[in-house]
């Protein structure tokens, strides 16, 4: 594959200024420029956050996210267009975000922040705050994101279990359940953290039955994709007290509509699909793109190739 023109699509501005990535790759062999939808058609390769039909004129598309459900995989494969993603770089940022969620729940930090807005000085009931040491978290999905969560939870002395399709052991995870053991895995965990990609198998993986299976004192954490959870079922489970709360970074519709009841729920933490955000994000993307430019020049296989 001959790559003479590399475009940084302006959609990456959702995460970082495209000029940052352009400058970080300025010393590579191709000419690197920031492009819009029309400009992308003239590129051999494009680095992007969004998907546009004009990318079908390119030979290689790199997504700055790990998820690739927005891309038409069959059409890309039929046209011989390479698609790579950014899996492997989000373990630290997402792991720390999930740790922050759990600390906020345990130490009541969200409650205090809301009280501060109202200039209220109220301590919680004596038996509400707790420490994470000795508490349990079940991480559903043990790829880069899931392992990032598990490593940090384990460091705080939590009991870490997980769900993985193969059931193969993972360092730092006390027990790994297979996918068909999901209900058993989540039934007694204080926190259930979702870190799976969105596929046909994982769409609405957590629905009414799964939520009813969880402990009534548990919290659901979702840093994967919104459609992994049946959102209506989640709202009902929260309203009915089937689970205690949730920390949600992703939603079926984004931005989360202003009329969603999730905004007003005391035990729900809403973040704007930003769990992976970090000021060094563009540097990690530059490393992946640079590496694949080198591999392509050497006639080697692309890293993180999806199709």
From TrEMBL:
The keyword Protease does not apply. One of its GO terms (molecular function) is NAD binding. Keywords: NAD, Oxidoreductase. Its EC number is 1.1.1.-. It is an enzyme of class 1 (oxidoreductase). Gene3D superfamilies: NAD(P)-binding Rossmann-like Domain. Belongs to the D-isomer specific 2-hydroxyacid dehydrogenase family. This is D-2-hydroxyacid dehydrogenase. It comes from Halalkalicoccus paucihalophilus. The gene is ddh_1.
């Amino acid at each position: 594959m001959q790559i003479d023109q590399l475009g940084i699509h302006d959609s990456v501005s959702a995460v970082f200024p495209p000029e940052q990535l352009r400058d970080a790759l300025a010393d590579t062999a191709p000419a690197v420029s920031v492009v819009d939808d029309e400009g992308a058609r003239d590129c051999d390769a494009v680095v992007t956050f969004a998907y546009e039909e004009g990318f079908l004129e390119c030979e290689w598309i790199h997504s700055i996210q790990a998820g690739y459900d927005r891309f038409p995989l069959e059409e890309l494969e039929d046209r011989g267009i390479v698609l790579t993603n950014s899996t492997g770089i989000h373990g630290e940022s997402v792991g720390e975000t999930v740790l922050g969620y759990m600390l906020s729940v345990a130490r009541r930090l969200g409650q205090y922040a809301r009280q501060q807005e109202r200039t209220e000085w109220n301590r919680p009931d004596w038996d509400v705050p707790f420490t994470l040491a000795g508490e349990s978290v079940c991480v559903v999905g043990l790829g880069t994101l899931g392992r990032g969560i598990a490593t940090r939870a384990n460091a705080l002395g939590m009991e870490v279990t997980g769900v993985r399709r193969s059931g193969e052991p993972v360092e730092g995870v006390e027990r790994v359940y297979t996918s068909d053991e999901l209900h058993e895995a989540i039934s007694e965990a204080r926190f259930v953290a979702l870190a799976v990609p969105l596929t046909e198998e994982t769409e609405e993986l957590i629905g009414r039955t799964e939520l009813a299976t969880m402990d009534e004192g548990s919290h659901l954490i979702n840093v994967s994709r919104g459609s992994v959870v049946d959102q209506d079922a989640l709202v009902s489970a929260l309203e009915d007290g089937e689970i205690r709360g949730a920390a949600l970074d992703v939603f079926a519709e984004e931005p989360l509509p202003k009329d969603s009841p999730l905004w007003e729920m005391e035990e729900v933490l809403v973040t704007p699909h930003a769990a992976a955000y970090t000021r060094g994000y563009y540097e990690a993307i530059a490393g992946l793109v640079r590496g694949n430019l080198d591999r392509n020049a050497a006639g080697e296989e692309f890293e993180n190739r999806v199709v």
